[in-house]
Amino acid sequence: MQRRLAAFAAARDWQPFHTPKNLAVALSVEASELVEIFQWLTPEQSERVMDHEETAGRVEDEVADVLAYLLQFCEVLGVDAASALAAKIDRNERRFPVPPGPVPPRGAEAERGISDSTDRHSME
């Protein structure tokens, strides 16, 4: 996909515009457009967004835009996206080991009123 995106840009002479800064900004804009779809939805509505053809199409388009700009960004900087992700997952597995015992069902902490300031799903 990176080669196809690079060829697409090259055929249109877009390389002068595909600087790391411009691609990072474009990536942020497209991610914001994805967020906009969910902006005023309840959590329950957001879980059903793919059930509706119109919003499903919008989500898919924005996901494609985000992925395209991310891959172009990686291409320009020489980042191997798959290797970078694998290394990040490895670090997170060491940083956040699996707790002993059974994993509580989804939302169980919230139902019991337990709050945790750590976002366990963050890749940071």
Summarize the structure in words.
With 124 residues, the protein is mostly helical. 63% of the residues lie in helices and 0% in strands. The protein is built from six helices and no strands. It has helices spanning 2-11, 20-38, 43-47, 53-77, 81-95, 108-111. The protein is flat. It starts with a helix and ends in a 13-residue tail after the last helix. The mean pLDDT is 89.
Assembly context of the chains: single chain
Residue stretches low in confidence (pLDDT < 50, at least 5 long) are: none
What distance lies between the first and last C-alpha atoms, to the nearest angstrom? Answer: 26 Å
Q: Strand count, sense and closure of the main sheet?
A: none
- Name the structural class: mainly alpha
Measured as a percent range, the helix fraction is 55-70%
Write down the Rg.
Answer: 19 Å
Could you tell me the strand content as a percent range? under 5%
Tally of helical runs: 6
- Kindly report the average pLDDT value: 89
Query: How many E strands?
Result: 0
Order of helices and strands: HHHHHH
Q: Looking at the structure, what is the overall shape?
A: flat
